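Service request form, structural biology core

Requester: graduate student, group of Dr. S.
Request type: structure prediction, single chain
Budget code: on file
Notes: please return the result as C-alpha cells.

Sequence provided:
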Amino acid sequence: MDRRHFLAGIMSTSALPACADAPATSMRAATRPDDLLARSAPDAERLIAAARLGGDISTVVADAHTGEVLESVNPIRLLPPASVAKAVTALYALETLGPDHRFETTLVATGPIREGRLDGDLVLVGGGDPGMDTDGLHDLVEQAKAAGLRAVGGRLLIWDGALPLIERIDPTQPEHVGYNPSISGLNVNFNRVHFAWRRAGTGYETSMEARTERFRPEVSTSRIAVENRTLPVYTYRDGGDVDLWTVARAQLGGSGSRWLPVRNPAQYAGEVLSKLLAYEEVEAPAPERVLRRPQGGAVIARTQSAPLDRIVRSMLRYSTNITAEVLGLASSVRRGLNTGTLDASGAMMTRWLEERAGLGRADFDDHSGLNGTTRVSGLGLVRVLTAAGAEARVRPLMRELTIEADRNIPVQAKTGTLNFASCLAGYFNARSGRPLAFATLTADVERRAGLSVAQRDRPEGGREWARRSRSLQFDLIERWWTVHA
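Core staff response, request fulfilled:
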C-alpha cells in the first residue's frame, strides 16, 4: 500500500454521453478464461473487507463513453462527498457562467474629478472575484490615481452585494480555521487575515495583516489579544464591524504565524483599500459599507479575474472552499436565486443536476463539500461525470494523479477528505485504453458525528483511517484498470 502516491502531471481529455442505470446489487466483472491477469485481480468485496474501515462505502465504475456500469458496491448509498463536491460545482459553474466568464471589481466615481478632487463618492464595487487580494486593490488605486484622483470629496463606499453575505461556510467547524471564512461580493485574500507573533520580553508582539507578496497593511477590523491560559487555543467574538480574537499564551512558543478567517469581508476590504489610498497619497474618508449599490457614476478603475476555466482548474487542484462557494453562489444568482443561503443555493444546484444528469436523491447543502450534511451516492457522482459533455469540460481541469502499480496509472480526479469521510472521483483509462469514470465514497458517519468541536481539528485515529481509505480507493482503481479491458 505504501508504494502508491500522488504525482503531478499533465491532463487528458475526451467526450462522453449520459450514464446508464446501475444494478441494484454488487457486480463482478466477467473475465475471459485466458485472461490470467484479470482473473488474478482481487474482487472489490475482498479489498473493502481488507481495508477495515467500518462505516459505509459506495463505489461505482462505468464506461465513460457509454455510461454502462461495470461494477458497483452499494451504488445508491448516500454519503458525504467532502471536496469531491467541487467537481460537481465545477460543471455547474462552467455550464451556467461559461468558461470565459470573468469576475470584475471596479472603483466608481459618482461625480467629476476637478483638479484632483472627486466631487462625489468613490465606490468600491465587488463582483465576487474569489481571487481578489491586496495587490489587486492596489492596482485599482493606481488606476484611479492615473485618472487624476488625489482626494475624495464625498464618501468612500463599499458595496459587496453581488453575492449574499455568508458568515461561515460550515457553522460546525472550529472558529479559527482559515478554510471556513465568510463569503460575499468582496473576498480579499480569501477572506483571511495573517496573524503573526513573536516573543518580546515577558510578553508577545502581535500583528494582523492583509498580507501579500507586495504589501502588508495592518488592519484593525480583526484584533487579537494574548491571554494567560492553556486551552482553548483560540476564541472568537463578533464585535460588530470588528472580529475579536484571543489566543492562549501557552500555545504560542517563540514565534509563528497563521491565517485566521475574516467574518466582516466588506469592512476588511474597505480598510485595506483605505490604507492603500493613503499609501498612494490619495485623501479619503473612512470607508462605509452600503447595502444598496449606488446608481450612476463613471468607472475610473477596473480589474478582472482570470477566466472561469482557469479558476476552476486552480480550485480543483488546491481545493479552495471559498472559490467553490463563490462559483456555486454566482451560478445560482445567475439562475435566479432569491434566498441568500448556501443551503438554498445548494438545493438549486441539486435540482439542476437532476435535470442535467438524471441525478436522484442527492442533497447538496453547499458547493465545497465542507458541510458534512451534504449527501450523494457513488452512482450519482458517476452520472454527473458521464453526463453528455461533462468529461470534455471537467476532465482536462482535474488534477492528474499517478497510482504506482505494476504499471503507472494516470488518473484525472478530485479527492475529498473530512473527518472519517474520504472520497475520490474522476476518470482514467483501463490497460486497454478503455475510458472509465468512477467514484468511491467512504464514511463512518456515526464516528464522525460523535466528535466534539475540539476534536475536529485532529481526531484520534483520523489520519490512519484516512490512509486506509485512500489505499482502498487506489486498490479499486488498480483492479478496474486490470479487469475492464
